[in-house]
Amino acid sequence: MRSHNTARVLGLLRAAGAAGVSRLELAERTGLTPQAVSKITARLRDEGLAAGAGRGVPTGGKPRTLLRLVPDAAHAVGLHLDRDELTAVLLDLAGATVAARTRPLDLGEGPGAVLAAAVEEVAALRGDGTLTGVGIAMPGPLDHTAGVPHRVTGFPAWDGFPLRDTARRALAERLGQDVPVALDKDTNAAALALALRADDDREAGAGDREAADDDREAADGVPGGRGGAPGGGGGSQDGRGGTPEGRGGAPDRLGAAPDDRGGPADGRGGSPDRPGGAPGRPGGTSGRVGVAPDGPGVTPGRVGVAPDGPGVTPDRPGAAPGGRPSAPPADGAASFAYLHVGTGLGAGLVLAGVLHRGARTGAGEFGHQTVQLDGAACGCGGRGCLEALCLAAVARGDLDEAARVLGAGAANLAGLLDVDRVLLGGRVVAAAPGPFLRGVGAALADRARRAGEPPVPVALATGSPHLVAEGAAQLVLAPLFGR
């Protein structure tokens, strides 16, 4: 595991994209000493993870050497073990999907057969490249911390099987190297991918606004945008006083800063769909929260939400009736529920910007809330479960009824957790999004009317068709960047 400060620097390099970022800006944004930044970046260059990106546009004084991340220096594999299908993706360090493979799978064949197929997919995707880790996502319930599935509905052979550790041993034998492995629920992986992507979008927007501000300030004749005339008393080319580098020393001496210990986790950028982030403008640290520290291999980062959908006025996220925003603030921590309808029914929860797994990492078993006492039997052993009623309606071809059932559960969730929005995904929703958007939206609107509140927006979880597998890869990739 890389050090916290190395992860912060890597994160900023990743956020800068191909445009790169200077060591001075890395020191400013991390609060590390220039010496610490130089040591970290030298090590990253030696390892092939960072490279030169030319020189920055001078604002007076010596142009700064820029550094960038090398996205193809290493990769991560994400595996989605669905009940009837295996999807494997290869992500580069920027979070871009390099390759994807799908094959039929029968989860009921048991851990041995499924794991053998999964290992072969990893070997096929890896090729000769460096592999940083493998993330596995599958239906719950499971123990993320221990890496052990529990009673996956309909598949008792998986109960208590040490999947994470067994997969690690099998991969080491097949690949000839020890590869870190992480295990989580499919819905948590999807929620993580959505949240990281939205976070990248927010950062890109912030970077564009900063660049526009700098352009306006430059047009006004204020180098560096912070005042101070060149060479004037207390002023400089950067407006910080002293020399063109703005730290009171020579151009190659970046000046004093806090030591190599402090500072919040920083550095984001890129996602499966946004590999570069905001060119040359890695973001700051305000409002950055992330995956809760409830399992190994995941460190705090920033997460967020997807674009507006039905239930809000498109592109108008302003205040809704009653003074409650109809969309979360762009720069703040947000909450959402991702509802997945596929071969099963589940939820991934991001609450106040944190991926919520619960005290025993079992949160999100959305499909097994009872919505009809003494209702139809469910494969989990209960009766009247949301999953049983919804999927039975899907099997009959009655998508309006399936959406009505899903909407009842979504309204319960909105009332319980007060989320900013609800996102829908999974193969059933993807095949016929209209009925589900209408049905869930109507249920949320009805609840809002009764409560005297604005409705919680509902939208499709847009993006890659391999959302769960990409989120699985991020389980091992994102922590490298302090996310």
From TrEMBL:
Write down the CDD domains for this protein, in alphabetical order: ASKHA_ATPase_ROK
Compositionally biased intervals (Gly residues): 222-249, 277-287
Which segments carry the region annotation Disordered?
201-329
Q: Which Gene3D superfamilies is this protein grouped with?
A: 3.30.420.40, Winged helix-like DNA-binding domain superfamily/Winged helix DNA-binding domain (1.10.10.10)
Q: Which residues lie in Low complexity bias regions?
A: 314-329
Q: Which Pfam families match?
A: HTH_24, ROK
Query: Where is the sequence biased in composition, kind Basic and acidic residues?
Result: 201-210
Q: Which family does it belong to?
A: Belongs to the ROK (NagC/XylR) family.
Q: Which PANTHER family match?
A: GLUCOKINASE, ROK (REPRESSOR, ORF, KINASE) FAMILY
Q: What is this protein called?
A: HTH marR-type domain-containing protein
**Per the UniProt entry, what species is this protein from, by scientific name?**
Streptomyces kanasensis
